[in-house]
User: Which sequence fits this backbone?
């Protein structure tokens, strides 16, 4: 007797574990492909950022207009006189003086560094005032070097580009004739009542708090140079010695 037999399925049986992994992969892939839902807060932030980007050029134009407006206001103020009447700005005319003013920096070795720094500030003030003057003098620094030069190099390297000033390492007696020099010193018995524009007036570049009294007067005597003191007593009441700072001496002249 013949029996009908079904063909055997020889394929490996799919395990339950494998089936579960496959189902999980499908679910995961589905989750990855699903569009991400954006919150209201994120949506508002994105809209705000887009508006900011869209208005970039507008903000730039407003800043430009604001700068232009301020510029026009400044020009309008400069173009008005005290009474508010429009007037043209008159360029300041400069007429250089033939008067020579020399700051003698040969006392560098007698000063502490802190005093050298003060001298440096006084010289800068003199230079600044002379540059702004309508009748600037012929301004000289002589015996320039030592601590003063080092201090100027350290704190104000732009001094090498200063204009309308003669800075020289030589002593003033090597630059000008003795008969053309007048040393301004408070210890001189002679009072200067009138300036002679053919002369060069020397101011001692010394900040010493009266530790070296009479040193500039002595130098003038030793070198055979004329000396004089400014007539401060006639204009200013001073209880102490008539010793001025370097910039005060120059401004007084």
Assistant:
């Amino acid at each position: 007797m013949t029996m009908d037999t079904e063909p055997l399925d020889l394929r490996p049986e799919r395990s339950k574990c494998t089936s579960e992994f496959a189902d999980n992969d499908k679910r995961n892939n589905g989750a990855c492909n699903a569009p991400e839902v954006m919150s209201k807060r994120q949506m508002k932030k994105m809209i705000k950022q887009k508006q900011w980007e869209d208005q970039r050029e507008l903000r730039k134009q407003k800043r430009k207009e604001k700068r232009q407006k301020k510029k026009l206001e400044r020009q309008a103020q400069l173009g008005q006189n005290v009474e508010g009447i429009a007037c043209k700005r008159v360029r300041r005319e400069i007429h250089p003086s033939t008067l020579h003013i020399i700051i003698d920096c040969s006392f560098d070795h007698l000063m502490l560094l802190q005093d050298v720094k003060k001298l440096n500030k006084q010289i800068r003030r003199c230079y600044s005032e002379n540059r702004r003057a309508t009748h600037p003098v012929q301004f000289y620094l002589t015996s320039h070097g030592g601590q003063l030069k080092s201090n100027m190099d350290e704190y104000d390297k732009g001094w090498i580009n200063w204009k309308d000033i003669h800075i020289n390492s030589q002593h003033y007696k090597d630059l000008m004739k003795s008969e053309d020099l007048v040393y301004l010193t408070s210890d001189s018995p002679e009072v200067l009542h009138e300036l002679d524009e053919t002369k060069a007036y020397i101011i001692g570049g010394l900040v010493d708090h009266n530790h070296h009294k009479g040193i500039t007067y002595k130098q003038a005597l030793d070198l055979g140079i004329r000396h004089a003191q400014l007539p401060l007593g006639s204009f200013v009441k001073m209880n102490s010695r008539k010793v001025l700072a370097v910039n005060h001496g120059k401004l007084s002249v």
Q: What stands out?
A: Residues 81-89 have pLDDT under 50 and may be disordered. The radius of gyration is 43 Å. The chain has two domains: 52-90, 100-252.
